[in-house]
């Protein structure tokens, strides 16, 4: 416990000692939290695990969320403004619909952005913010 605080009581959950402080808050051991997350990843429900260990289901959901690695987010997007000279724009090559993968094209001012299928939406939002800021 923190600062030498003596727990009011200690209960055993899944073989782990879970101390309870005076205010009723429990200090869940990291190994117990990891075991709960593993069982949920294996297919058990958050509510069932929470009921089994006597924890609030929102707390167990936070454990699961914190255990998931965050997707890497690019730190920098380079947006090059169009040149002052406007050479003849070439038309995009079109492919027969049955052979083309579904994609999206966005035109903002002189910027033409092609988004490939499966592009992460959070990255796309950053690209659009950068384009808007450069206008």
Structural key phrases:
about 140 residues; 4 strands; two-stranded antiparallel ribbon; two-stranded antiparallel sheet; 4 helices; alpha+beta
Low-confidence segments, ≥5 residues, pLDDT <50? none
Q: Main beta sheet, described?
A: 2 strands, antiparallel
Shape: elongated
Round the Cα radius of gyration to an integer and report it. Answer: 26 Å
> What portion of residues is helical?
25-40%
Structural class: alpha+beta
Strand order of the largest sheet: 1-2
Mean pLDDT level = 76
**Proportion of beta-strand residues:** 5-15%
- How far from one another are the termini? 55 Å
How many β strands by DSSP?
A: 4
Element string (H = helix, E = strand) = EEHHHEEH
Q: DSSP helix count?
A: 4
Could you characterize what this model shows?
- Helix content is 33%, strand content 15%.
- It is α+β, with helices and mostly antiparallel strands.
- The strands form two sheets. It has a two-stranded antiparallel sheet.
- Helix 1 (30-41) packs across helix 3 and helix 2 (46-53) packs across helix 3.
- It is elongated.
- The N and C termini lie far apart (55 Å).
- The model has no long low-confidence stretch (mean pLDDT 76).
Concise synopsis of the structure shown:
The chain is an alpha+beta fold and about 140 residues long. The chain has helices at about 30-40, 45-55, 55-65, 120-135, and strands at about 10-15, 15-20, 105-110, 110-115. The chain has a two-stranded antiparallel ribbon. The protein has a two-stranded antiparallel ribbon with strand order 3-4.
